């Protein structure tokens, strides 16, 4: 029995198909018509009570089944009308008599109005809405997927929740795609009803004239009643299904059932109801209008709106402070402070447990705080794209550098001005900026021919003189040579540059273990040999941190580990000599390093005079942590001044500034100038591939006065 019930839908569809072939008695046709109407009403009520379309995901299939059922009934009723002298059951007879009321022309006109209303208004509208919904859902899928990835990487949702949300997005896309096709079935059903009506009336009249001896008036009356009745019992369920179709495809932004949404949203606008009542009252001034009816409606609207306004004012007001937006990972500091103040006793009781105090000690790796005006950039509910841009940056940085940026905590802060933002690394502010969301940032070119009106500022990521300009001045600014950037790109660029500069601070021991485990999947023997022998996680962390600090990708873990093993075991390099290990690894990664600073087969560099380098070698001193460069202050000052002058030559180039030294001096010279020029890269000759042409565009020398002192 259970097995039969599991195939009930299949049996029902097969029965419907048989309706197209096997003649049915009139009594069974009446039962089928009543079932069809009941089923259509049930579907319409269901679409009005669900909260979201996916709760009724079988609707596209039901649409096909009900249409097939209706067509089967049409075939049976048409067969009965043509073969039984216009008789096809009591339901059709009752509907025909009720609508026609003895007037064939009026009955046919009413029937045609119902059919055309369904075909032109409801069916056509539902078809268009389904088509647009399907297209927009497909277009929005990548953005929704990135939003899920952002929430997952930020720790707002678990892997299981992310999987559930992805499945829901896929089901929504499939549902609206199916609805786009299913609405074509409804449209075809409306066309078919017109054809069936014409066949019943014209074909039945011809058969009656030929086969029966009745008068033409009697024949037309009989078949017109049957035709209109048959059309109505078919079109009323069809109209209900068409309405249900339009209902379900227009429920995209609903929060509850249709009844709940209408009640909630209309009752939230009492003044609109009262204004409508006043307008209805004004209509009584028009001569000939029914004053009593207008007065009753007007009084009802005004009194109802007044009652609702009094009830809304009497309800306790909830004040949202700080704008905490959990969906966009924003946490309102002001809101949390107010909540703490309003529940002071509860909070005091909470922190009596010393274990709860430890929850206040956590420090986020990366934080970004916003002023109130910048919140929409991160709020996805109003079209903010900051989170999706961060996801793209994290993925690109992982591909380029081999290191995954940890989750970035976004929050709004009442301590900042409305247009300001702050970037924090491990709880401390490292950068700050200001964004005008209604303007564009125009970066000034080197040879500025003509200025454009705007608010002068400095581009936060690179310190380029800029202007905030109005959107309508964008094209003019580009004609003047300015580089125009939208506010979101300014914000993301600043954030990405800050993260790149401080990435070496974010590579924790836990992240080291993750990177090792990831490498172990590909090279288990290498990892086993390295970490069961001379290499510790602490040493590996020091090496990777140093490489990241100088902008060297750590993606090629196998080469890094192999070079470390070779340097320690074969050459006898002491484990404590981390600098020596790093220089060996940089030499092994020379193709990667060369690619970073090479353009069209050549690398533009600043070289170092041999006499200056010999002087610097002579100034190496040994301390507790190894050798360090102890230069004469005058020599150091001269070097800083010369580097500043030479760096100007890189301003028009896309390549980062590079200073070329010997391998012995590289790390010491880098540490010397890093405090003055953190973005300058210091390379040795051993780190450059042989097939690259080195082009010196500047030279650092030991000046004459310094030569005498040295």
Q: Fraction of residues in helices?
A: 55-70%
* Spatial extent as radius of gyration: 39 Å
Distance between the termini: 104 Å
Lateral arrangement of strands in the main beta sheet: 2-1-3-4
Largest sheet: 4 strands, mixed
Total E-strand runs: 14
Structural class: alpha/beta
Membrane topology: Multi-pass membrane protein
Pfam family, one: FHIPEP
Transmembrane segments: 7-26, 32-50, 62-82, 102-122, 191-212, 232-254, 266-286
GO biological process, one term: protein secretion
Précis, in short:
The protein has 710 residues and is of the alpha/beta class. The strands form five sheets. It has a four-stranded mixed beta sheet, covered by helices on one side. A four-stranded antiparallel beta sheet has the order 6-7-5-8. Strands 9-14 form a two-stranded parallel ribbon.
Structure description:
- It is elongated, with a radius of gyration of 39 Å.
- The chain has 28 helices and 14 strands.
- Strand 3 (420-425) and strand 4 (428-434) form a beta hairpin.
- It has five domains: 8-259; 268-314; 326-502, 3-Layer(aba) Sandwich (Glutaredoxin), CATH 3.40.30.60; 507-588, Helicase, Ruva Protein, domain 3; 601-709, Rossmann fold (3-Layer(aba) Sandwich).
- It has 710 residues and is of the alpha/beta class.
- The model is unreliable at 316-345 (pLDDT under 50).
- The strands form five sheets. The chain has a four-stranded mixed beta sheet, covered by helices on one side.
């Amino acid at each position: 029995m259970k097995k039969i019930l599991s195939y009930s839908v299949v049996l029902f569809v097969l029965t419907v198909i048989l309706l197209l072939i096997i003649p049915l008695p009139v009594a069974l046709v009446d039962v089928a018509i009543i079932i069809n109407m009941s089923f259509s009403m049930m579907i319409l009520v269901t679409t009005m009570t669900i909260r979201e379309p996916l709760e009724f995901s079988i609707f596209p299939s039901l649409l096909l089944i009900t249409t097939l059922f209706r067509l089967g009934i049409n075939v049976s009723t048409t067969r009965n009308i043509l073969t039984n002298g216009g008789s096809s059951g009591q339901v059709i007879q009752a509907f025909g008599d009720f609508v026609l009321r003895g007037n064939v022309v009026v009955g046919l006109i009413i029937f045609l109005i119902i059919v055309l209303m369904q075909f032109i208004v409801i069916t056509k509208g539902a078809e268009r809405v389904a088509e647009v919904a399907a297209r927009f859902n497909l277009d929005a899928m990548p953005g929704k997927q990135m939003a899920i990835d952002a929430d997952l990487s930020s720790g707002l949702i678990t892997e299981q929740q992310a999987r559930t949300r992805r499945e829901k997005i896929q089901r929504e896309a499939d549902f609206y795609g199916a609805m786009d096709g299913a609405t074509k079935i409804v449209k075809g059903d409306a066309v078919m009803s017109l054809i069936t009506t014409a066949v019943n009336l014209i074909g039945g009249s011809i058969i009656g004239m030929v086969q029966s001896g009745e008068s033409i008036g009697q024949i037309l009356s009989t078949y017109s009643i049957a035709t209109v009745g048959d059309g109505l019992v078919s079109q009323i369920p069809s109209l209900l299904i068409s309405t249900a179709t339009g209902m379900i495809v227009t429920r995209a932004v609903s929060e509850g059932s249709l009844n709940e949404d209408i009640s909630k949203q209309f009752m939230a606008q009492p003044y609109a109801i009262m204004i409508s009542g006043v307008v209805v009252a004004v209509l009584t001034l028009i001569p000939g209008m029914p004053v009593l009816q207008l007065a009753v409606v007007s009084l009802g609207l005004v009194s109802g709106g007044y009652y609702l306004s009094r009830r809304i004012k009497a309800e306790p007001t909830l004040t949202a402070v700080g704008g905490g937006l959990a969906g966009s990972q924003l946490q309102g500091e002001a809101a949390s402070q107010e909540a703490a103040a309003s529940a002071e006793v509860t909070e005091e009781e909470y922190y009596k447990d010393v274990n709860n105090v430890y929850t206040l000690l956590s420090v986020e790796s990366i934080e970004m705080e916003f002023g109130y005006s910048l919140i929409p950039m991160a709020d996805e509910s109003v079209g903010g794209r900051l989170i999706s841009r961060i996801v793209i940056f994290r993925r690109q940085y992982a591909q380029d550098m081999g290191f995954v940026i940890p989750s970035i905590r976004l929050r709004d802060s009442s301590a900042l001005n409305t247009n300001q933002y702050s970037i924090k690394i491990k709880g401390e502010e490292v950068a700050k900026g200001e964004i005008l969301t209604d303007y564009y940032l125009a970066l000034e070119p080197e040879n500025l021919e003509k200025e454009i009106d705007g608010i002068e500022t400095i581009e936060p990521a690179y310190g380029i003189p800029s202007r905030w300009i109005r959107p309508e001045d964008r094209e003019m600014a580009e004609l003047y040579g300015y580089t125009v950037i939208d506010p979101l790109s300014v914000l993301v660029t600043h954030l990405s540059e800050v993260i790149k500069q401080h990435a070496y601070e974010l590579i924790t021991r836990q992240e080291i273990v993750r990177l090792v485990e990831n490498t172990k999947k590909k090279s288990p023997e290498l990892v086993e040999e390295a970490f069961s022998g001379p290499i510790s996680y602490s040493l590996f962390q020091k090496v990777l941190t140093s490489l990241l600090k100088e902008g060297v990708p750590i993606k090629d873990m196998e080469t890094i580990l192999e070079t470390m093993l070779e340097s320690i075991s074969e050459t006898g390099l002491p484990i404590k000599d981390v600098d020596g290990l790093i220089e060996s690894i940089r030499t092994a990664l020379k193709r990667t390093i060369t690619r970073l600073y090479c353009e069209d087969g050549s690398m533009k560099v600043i070289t170092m005079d041999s006499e200056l380098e010999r002087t610097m070698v002579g100034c190496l001193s040994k301390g507790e942590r190894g050798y360090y460069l102890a230069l004469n202050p005058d020599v150091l000052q001269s070097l800083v001044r010369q580097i500043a002058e030479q760096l100007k030559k890189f301003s028009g180039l896309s390549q980062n500034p590079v200073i070329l030294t010997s391998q012995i001096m590289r790390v010491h010279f880098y540490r010397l100038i890093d405090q003055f020029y953190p973005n300058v890269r210091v390379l040795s000759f051993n780190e450059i591939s042989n097939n690259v042409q080195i082009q010196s565009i500047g030279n650092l020398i030991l000046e004459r006065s310094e030569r005498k002192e040295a």
